[in-house]
Amino acid sequence: xxxxxxxxxxxxxxxxxxxxxxxxxxxxxxxxxxxxxxxxxxxxxxxxxxxxxxxxxxxxxxxxxxxxxxxxxxxxxxxxxxxxxxxxxxxxxxxxxxxxxxxxxxxxxxxxxxxxxxxxxxxxxxxxxxxxxxxxxxxxxxxxxxxxxxxxxxxxxxxxxxxxxxxxxxxxxxxxxxxxxxxxxxxxxxxxxxxxxxxxxxxxxxxxxxxxxxxxxxxxxxxxxxxxxxxxxxxxxxxxx
Amino acid sequence: xxxxxxxxxxxxxxxxxxxxxxxxxxxxxxxxxxxxxxxxxxxxxxxxxxxxxxxxxxxxxxxxxxxxxxxxxxxxxxxxxxxxxxxxxxxxxxxxxxxxxxxxxxxxxxxxxxxxxxxxxxxxxxxxxxxxxxxxxxxxxxxxxxxxxxxxxxxxxxxxxxxxxxxxxxxxxxxxxxxxxxxxxxxxxxxxxxxxxxxxxxxxxxxxxxxxxxxxxxxxxxxxxxxxxxxxxxxxxxxxxxx
Lengths: 241, 243
Description:
The structure holds two protein chains of two kinds.
Chain A: E1 2-11, E2 14-24, E3 29-33, H1 40-47, E4 55-60, E5 63-64, H2 69-73, E6 76-79, H3 91-101, H4 106-119, H5 135-147, E7 153-157, H6 165-178, E8 183-187, H7 192-197, E9 200-205, E10 208-213, H8 215-222, H9 227-234
Parallel strand pairs in A: 3-8, 3-9, 6-7, 7-8
Antiparallel strand pairs in A: 1-2, 1-4, 4-5, 9-10
Helix pairs in contact in A: 3-4, 4-5
Chain B: H1 2-16, H2 19-38, H3 41-44, H4 57-69, H5 71-79, H6 82-87, H7 92-112, H8 115-124, H9 129-156, H10 160-177, H11 180-190, H12 192-201, H13 204-211, H14 217-242
């Protein structure tokens, strides 16, 4: 579903992503781990089609995102890192707008908006203006936007960031459930989430993949029981690089 | 279709907040003060509306058009919603045009709301309504040109104040370039040819010719060039900002 091969991205002379390749199949949830500045968000922005890679290929359900960007993007639901929203709209108004952009009209738009509001527990704030929402609600509104069109591929950049423990738990369960019939790529630096909802994990460091496998495979490979220890072993401290 | 979706959102945003109302209100008040108090519309009896009414439009646009246009892209950059737009399955052009048309509609509403002066002129005198229509067209085209320039400048920065100040400055330059006094001053300084270039580059000459109802090809070419160049530039800047 998501196929990334030899992805590179440089900003000026700075190399953000170097020769990264991975695949996410239907029914898989791939956790994207790494320290801050490892290139996680950069990779996700490229995979979601926000900006093009310096080199390499990205294909979404067999569609090359550089050659047919609109078709590829229509198969993706994307939650950006900062959960950007239009503050001057209501939650429902924003979701209606996003649904219309996704080509949903009339009754199917209404159903999609209702379903997304339900899935992300937004009933209480549906008619509230977005600029009055708390961070947790903002995040979930943006997540709802990504689920509207029932996409085959979900790309979630730190979906649990800024949520309280209850909400974190709910989002993890949601990801796990959605992952049964979708291909999900999500980034996090909370390692418990890997065990909680991922079928596989990639650890990136300085733009390169340094470990790749299911949580149990990683444990066996490094002979360590704690993902924290593995993470610390394979990544460099930002003060050291 | 996507252009229309973006257009609807922008319209809801303009008229859901104070921006559009304030701009339209100030525009109407300012224009009326200038027309009736400064150029004394009633005493002069200018039935073409050329010297008392339309005369002030470009100057007001220099100040007010960037106020409506400044949030066009700056706000998207600041709140990072540009990342949402960039990952929606729509082309960059449909967002550019949707936003542009919405802002232009705000000004169309403002212009339409000046209709009492048109009624007054028809009641008190016997104006050539074709010339008045042509004046309105010229006014709207000046507005659209300034709006396209604001769109281009707002694509550069997430700071709305910078957009506002720079856009006002650029529009003011274009306004001044073709102004009679400036043209005369340039003429004595650098000669006829340079003065003609100044006049042709500035907005004034093109606006004036539509004011008197002469549909010259060069005026439409000028407006079309400014608007399309600025919008193409917007597209280019947005694309290169994302790379």
